[in-house]
């Protein structure tokens, strides 16, 4: 069943047809006019109440259809999650940074929702998987401690606004066990620093780095920090690259954002899948509500090397690979079928949502559907889809399922 899906026009999204979201939208429905001045940030595919998908042929919301068709989710999903699609599949097109953030654990989400229901609107966790469609920039996880120390030693503008006793303890500590506690104190003091002090320190940093040579500018991430400063002048989040890993994913590479892992997307296009929740705790690079005390207290302060953060898929067969995060809510398969071939998808015990990313042809469960980039399909549990590319074409698709 083909779905009509919700577009979110958040301010940080890419404009017009520079956005993969907009391109997919216009390919799927040529009658849609794309506004070149408008941001097309996210395409939502699923049953989330903030952007529910519609079954085109039946003119009914997918969530409503499922109420009378429990077989569509399958007994395993019904038993675990109820009669719902427990994941949300998205395509994101990021023009500028969208908030330093983390997502709570399931238990923590329940506490936050109970205590602050207006801010944290559901009691679910929100682990996420991001798979790059284009070169995709992100900040993710805290850097190795040695890297953070080197930056602090070479950035007097940053060092002088931190409590000197905390700074000294952190710089002189060699104990792995103590480093996380000391890093938390440093990061907490930075996040709680007076806004005028932060603004002044950033202004001084940019004045100095603008005069430095190319080698020093590269070492101190001038190009990246300059971009953040331009989009969010005076924001404490502009200091984040000196604490968090800066990653550029190549198309097909992925990161899994487990609970409490700090991250911020910076630019590029990706397929994203997550538990069906909108729980985000933010603390910078955003005009939205920030909750510094909650974020600082919940973060994972472990140091990660960038290669530790890459999440590698498993090969299922010559046409399919799958990313299986350590959560039951979702997994994502990437399927590629070349011209002259035909492919039967794996039979899954859960419902599936497919997004066609490139190529053309037809998909058939009981009745064939013509597919092209941007077409989104819902497949019932324990059913199989046959993908057949058009002549001299191919089909590339992403399939979201429950990981049960």
Describe this structure as you would to a colleague.
With 404 residues, the protein is an alpha+beta fold. Helix content is 28%, strand content 30%. The strands form four sheets. Strands 2, 5, 8, 9, 10, 11, 12, 13, 14 and 15 form a ten-stranded antiparallel β-sheet that branches. Strands 7-6-1-23-20-25-18-17-16 form a nine-stranded antiparallel β-sheet. A four-stranded antiparallel β-sheet has the order 19-24-21-22, with no helix packed on it. It is globular, with a radius of gyration of 22 Å.
Task: Record keyword descriptors for this entry.
single chain; 404 residues; alpha+beta; 10-stranded antiparallel sheet; 9-stranded antiparallel sheet; 13 helices; 25 strands; 28% helix; globular
Sequence-ordered SSE layout with sheet pairings:
Blueprint: E1 2-4, E2 6-8, E3 14-15, H1 20-28, E4 39-40, E5 42-45, E6 54-55, E7 60-61, H2 62-67, H3 74-81, E8 87-94, E9 98-102, H4 106-115, E10 128-132, E11 136-142, H5 145-154, H6 156-159, H7 164-172, H8 176-191, H9 195-209, H10 214-219, H11 222-231, E12 244-249, E13 254-257, E14 263-275, E15 281-284, H12 292-298, H13 306-309, E16 314-317, E17 320-323, E18 331-338, E19 343-344, E20 352-359, E21 361-364, E22 368-371, E23 376-379, E24 386-389, E25 394-401
Antiparallel strand pairs: 1-6, 1-23, 2-5, 3-4, 5-8, 6-7, 8-14, 9-14, 9-15, 10-13, 10-14, 11-12, 11-14, 16-17, 17-18, 18-25, 19-24, 20-23, 20-25, 21-22, 21-24
Structure at a glance:
By secondary structure, the chain is of the alpha+beta class.
């Amino acid at each position: 069943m083909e779905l009509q899906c919700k577009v979110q026009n958040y301010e940080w999204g890419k404009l017009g047809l520079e956005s993969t979201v907009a391109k997919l939208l216009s390919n799927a429905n040529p009658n849609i006019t794309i506004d070149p001045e408008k941001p097309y940030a996210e395409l939502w595919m699923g049953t989330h109440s903030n952007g529910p998908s519609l079954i085109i042929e039946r003119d009914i919301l997918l969530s409503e259809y499922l109420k009378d068709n429990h077989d569509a989710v399958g007994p395993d999903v019904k038993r675990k999650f109820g009669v719902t699609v427990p994941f949300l599949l998205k395509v994101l097109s990021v023009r500028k940074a969208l908030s330093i953030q983390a997502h709570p654990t399931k238990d923590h989400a329940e506490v936050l929702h109970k205590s602050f229901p207006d801010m944290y609107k559901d009691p679910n966790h929100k682990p996420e998987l991001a798979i790059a469609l284009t070169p995709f920039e992100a900040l993710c996880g805290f850097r190795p401690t040695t890297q953070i120390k080197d930056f602090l030693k070479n950035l007097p503008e940053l060092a002088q606004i931190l409590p000197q006793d905390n700074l000294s303890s952190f710089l002189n500590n060699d104990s792995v066990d103590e480093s996380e506690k000391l890093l938390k104190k440093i990061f907490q003091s930075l996040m709680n620093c007076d806004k005028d002090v932060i603004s002044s320190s950033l202004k001084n940093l940019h004045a100095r780095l603008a005069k430095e040579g190319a080698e020093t500018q590269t070492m101190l991430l001038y190009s990246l920090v300059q971009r953040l400063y331009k989009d969010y002048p005076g924001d404490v989040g502009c200091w984040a690259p000196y604490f968090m890993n800066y990653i550029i994913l190549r198309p097909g590479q992925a990161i899994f954002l487990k609970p409490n892992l700090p991250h911020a997307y910076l630019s590029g296009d990706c397929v994203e899948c997550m538990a069906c929740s909108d729980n985000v705790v933010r603390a910078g690079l955003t005009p939205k509500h920030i909750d510094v005390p909650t974020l600082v207290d919940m973060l994972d302060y472990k140091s990660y090397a960038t290669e530790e953060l890459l999440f590698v898929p498993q090969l299922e067969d010559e046409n399919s690979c799958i990313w299986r995060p350590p959560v039951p809510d979702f997994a994502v398969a990437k399927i590629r079928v070349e011209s002259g071939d035909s492919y039967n998808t794996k039979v899954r015990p859960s419902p599936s949502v497919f997004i066609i990313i490139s190529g053309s042809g037809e998909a058939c469960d009981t009745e064939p559907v013509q597919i092209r980039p941007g077409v989104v399909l819902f497949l019932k549990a324990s059913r199989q889809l046959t993908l057949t590319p058009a002549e001299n074409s191919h089909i590339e698709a992403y399939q979201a399922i429950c990981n049960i």
